[in-house]
Specification:
Helix content: 25-40%
Low-confidence stretches: none
Shape: globular
Order of helices and strands: EHEEHEEHHEEH
GO molecular function: ATP binding; phosphoprotein phosphatase activity; phosphorelay sensor kinase activity
Bound molecules: adenosine-5'-triphosphate, magnesium ion
Protein name: histidine kinase
Distance between the termini: 18 Å
Largest sheet: 5 strands, mixed
Subcellular location: Cell membrane
Strand content: 25-35%
Mean pLDDT: 91
Main location: membrane
Number of strands: 7
Keywords: ATP-binding, Cell membrane, Kinase, Membrane, Nucleotide-binding, Phosphoprotein, Transferase, Transmembrane, Transmembrane helix, Two-component regulatory system
Number of helices: 5
Length: 159
């Protein structure tokens, strides 16, 4: 379905903002006041964002800020979710997208989860012809990025 990603993203962030009120987490939106048309399955992309944002909440300290961004590139948008949480060691960054992988079993056991969230998230992003990756500094925070191809309205008219 042809979806304007901007209001879609805002709605999902609104829901998190309502639900985690007591955890004192700030949501900083860096989202242009523009339309970004992408061809997505809304339910699947909701699952993608729920997984990424709930990790950011889960691994954030009290009073932490989560920064949610859309950046426009030529043929795609880059969506990112940055937190100020515990971070992930450099050599483990790629593994977090593997099934059942959890960075520090002792540390994360108490936080719950199966280690499937990001593996499913990667499959869903790739099914939309996007890519997903992570960047992190231990003790400083983590950023998850993913891309989605923009619908080329000009070319669609020519067909
Ligand atoms: P589930 O999502 O299935 O409930 P999970 O959150 O442990 O469980 P994933 O979402 O797949 O699993 O994440 C895999 C691992 O990557 C996590 O266990 C955690 O160690 C690490 N991780 C993911 N996101 C973050 C983050 N924002 N900050 C720090 N570590 C993270
Ligand atoms: Mg998770």
């Amino acid at each position: 379905e042809d979806i304007d990603f901007t209001p879609f993203f805002h709605n999902i962030i609104d829901r998190f903002e309502m639900n985690v009120k007591d955890e004192k987490i700030n949501f900083n939106r860096q989202i242009p006041n523009k339309s970004f048309h992408v061809w997505i399955d809304k339910d699947r992309l909701t699952q993608v964002l729920d997984n990424i944002i709930s990790n950011a909440v889960k691994y954030s300290p009290d009073g932490g800020t989560i920064t949610l961004k859309i950046e426009r590139h030529i043929r795609q948008i880059v969506v990112s979710v940055r937190d100020e949480g515990i971070g992930i060691e450099y050599d483990k960054l790629d593994k977090i997208f593997d099934r059942f992988y959890r960075v520090d079993k002792a540390r994360t056991r108490q936080l719950g989860g199966t280690g499937l969230g990001l593996a499913i998230t990667r499959e869903l992003v790739e099914a939309h012809y996007g890519r997903i990756w992570a960047n992190s500094k231990e003790g400083k925070g983590t950023t998850i990025y993913f891309t989605l191809p923009l619908i080329n309205h000009k070319r669609r008219r020519e067909i």
